[in-house]
């Protein structure tokens, strides 16, 4: 049987015993992405507190993909559906709303991660479709996504706004992951210029990247979508990652 045909995709809420295993996936996230402070504090709790908004894929006993999303209230004062602080902001809002009992008005994807051995077989489309269905079952008619374009790291000096404008001859986005979303019915809305923020001492960045971080200015880091800003006098480097807001009507 073809590998992808043996994969079962469905809501995590229907398979709760898999919640503890969704991070067994052999992923390709750059090492520094584990050090976003908001994500470090909250992301691991999503599968336990919002399982009805999450999806999982298995091949036999093996977990091969996860898809995480969360609901939040975009109608409170000072909020909007597609905030400039993107991923960090909606994750924080989701847990705040749950803690105080705010009603939710919209859902946002956080990630779809595919095991390295299962990339390139169309599983991302199945995961996105399953996530849209999961969100719809909770009564929402919109799924937002602060998308991390998966080929942007090859062009770190290009602004995200200009990168998003790049299209193929057929009019679809040049970026593969943005193309998946658009083919699935998503609409690109805007750039989230400060979607995630990673800061650390120069020694921390050296350990995360293997780079020297020994001069001031912009440092290109493998896997980073834009350069990291290094300040040697202050012993700090900061990476502010832009993402792209995509809206799915469901």
Describe this structure in words.
- By secondary structure, the chain is α+β, with helices and mostly antiparallel strands.
- The protein has one domain (3-195, 243-249): Gcn5-related N-acetyltransferase (GNAT) (Aminopeptidase).
- It is 24% helix and 28% strand.
- The longest helix has 15 residues, at 86-100.
- The protein is globular, with a radius of gyration of 18 Å.
- The two termini are 32 Å apart.
* Biggest pleated-sheet summary: 9 strands, mixed
Q: What does the overall shape look like?
A: globular
Backbone CA Rg: 18 Å
In oligomeric terms, what are we looking at?
single chain
Q: Tell me the domain tally.
A: 1
Query: Could you tell me the number of beta strands?
Result: 9
Proportion of helical residues:
10-25%
Q: Which fold name corresponds to the CATH topology?
A: Aminopeptidase
The CATH architecture can be named as 3-Layer(aba) Sandwich
Q: Which structural category do the helix and sheet elements fall into? A: alpha+beta
- The CATH class label is Alpha Beta
Poorly predicted segments: none
Task: Give the termini separation.
Answer: 32 Å
Find the CATH superfamily. Gcn5-related N-acetyltransferase (GNAT)
Fold blueprint:
Blueprint: E1 7-11, H1 37-42, H2 46-49, E2 55-59, E3 62-72, H3 86-100, E4 106-114, H4 123-137, E5 142-147, H5 160-164, H6 176-183, E6 187-200, H7 202-209, E7 217-219, E8 228-231, E9 236-249
Parallel strand pairs: 4-5
Antiparallel strand pairs: 1-2, 2-3, 3-4, 5-9, 6-9, 7-8, 8-9
